[in-house]
């Protein structure tokens, strides 16, 4: 057959609990007269022989695993599995099985461990007749018991029967008694069998058995059984660790004995699951789900009991904030609160809300403000974890607390500033803590999770607070590391290998910190608009950031470039004018030229920046780039980006020329109409008088033009006046408004006037300087003008 959907491998489970491959073939579901029912048939793809013929029994529990596997038990100790090549084929056969049994195909198992027919039979027949018959609990029968326990794990119904048998005969207690005997006799073979038995009982996944096994008088014997893994040469010493190494610390004495017992039990069961038990195999994935639930509900109960004990928590926070508390005691208290918050993650959402509100009422945030400023690294790390739980739960709760803090003269005592300082002063070379804190700050300043009320907006209030009291603390390292370059104009400094302030060397840790700060500032540019725009302009922040384009760490240069790219991506003319006025493309283009012919991420990122400007047709930036840097960029031909910028520039210049020409004609037409209207009553006037007036006007205008041209020599703003041909000034005196417009625009395009309408600012350099610099390299010119 060529249908790969039905292609399967047939497996059977052998006595060693290993799966044997019985061959590859194609499966089908057909009615077999001899079996009197719909059956699964698998014929070998090699010779067409019958590999499997299995009737789909209404009472057999079929289980679908991993989308391509169907497992079931034919009889005692005979388990089968079909492994499909394609999920579609598995789904088809699964639907057929469910159709025969009248089950929903959405289920992964067709039968509950005890189905309705079995329950009815339990009512009719004595219960014990359906239990697995357990051998006597004796040393000589341990091997037989181990084989029985491991043989039932693949069948849900047989697991259920074995669990009932173990419960009805109090078999667990008897087995643990045999363990103590074997250990006293140093009977290694018996201990190895007990390991298999106890491990198998855990995999039965029954809460009733767990209650017995994890009781105070049994759990250490269970741990003892699990020490004797046959695969290990020497037994592990888990009991020694749990009783001697692991110490239970009561930061505040717990008077409730039930709570104390529950804490001990949960720790030990968690240890069994995480440390002792091996990782479950593919067929054991769900065997420990009940154990996970057991631990989960224990944690919920512990949190609820502690939360209800108001005296206990009140005492914890009182000692935590008490200045007289010893450092070691405070460290234990902080670790307790951290574990307490970790346990709270098991609560349902409504219960978790109540939990964190309880902590807030007890003063968790003022306490964190104190402990996060301490010198103890362990205390600060634990406090950071607690803070992350609070921010994750409710950023608004943290913001509300911060804004309600008294505005003291020293901003360093504010909680957010304490967090920022801890981020800046992280001693970890990899800045692990700083990365975590940066993520928390990002959450706090994210407008997406800020609430808006009817009368006031949390976003406006908090961002105003943050930029007034906190932003200067965040940007302090950035400004400190770029201060030296800003005031330096020496070319030899610009060519040096280290461009950062020598006081704060450009080492890896400093570069990482600056990259984190830049990442946060880039987020602000994207989400805060007004506040960050004002801050950038006031601090000339982009210029300082672009100093880092000279960093020897490429990732830091890329962060600086990403900051500028995000600003340009807003297509905000306010930002564009700031960039043009400050000539802020210079460090970017210098970095591109210094990078040379290397095809790397920095090269691609810079080209992408210019490609964005070209594609989005940001006219003011295109004009600035072409006018000032095209001579240096023209040789770059492996991409068409810069030639495309020049093309955009020329197109805009042509459009401007056409528009100016058309506007001039329209203006003259308007002047003529105006003159006709004004002179309607003077139709008989002599034409010579009109010509004389025009000649006089020409003389006056030409005189003004010459004066303007003389002013250009003195450095006056003459970019527009210098381009005016004398003939344009000869207009009628009655159209003064039109004459102003016309004087300001050229009749024909020239090199200088091409920028008219694109960009024109009072601080533009005069035309003479541009002429002198026309033959210079834009790169060199930019450096000298820094």
TrEMBL record:
Residues 5-101 form the PP4R3 EVH1-like domain. Residues 675-695, 758-786 are annotated as: Disordered. InterPro entries: ARM-type_fold, EVH1_PP4R3, P4R3-like_central_dom, PH-like_dom_sf, PP4R3-like. It comes from the Eukaryota. Gene3D superfamilies: Pleckstrin-homology domain (PH domain)/Phosphotyrosine-binding domain (PTB) (2.30.29.30). Pfam families: EVH1_PP4R3 (PF22972), PP4R3 (PF04802). Residues 675-689, 761-775 have a biased composition (Acidic residues). One of its GO terms (cellular component) is nucleoplasm. Coiled coil: none annotated. GO terms for biological process: DNA damage response. GO terms for molecular function: protein phosphatase activator activity. Residues 144-651 form the Serine/threonine-protein phosphatase 4 regulatory subunit 3-like central domain. Belongs to the SMEK family. Regulatory subunit of serine/threonine-protein phosphatase 4. This is Serine/threonine-protein phosphatase 4 regulatory subunit 3.
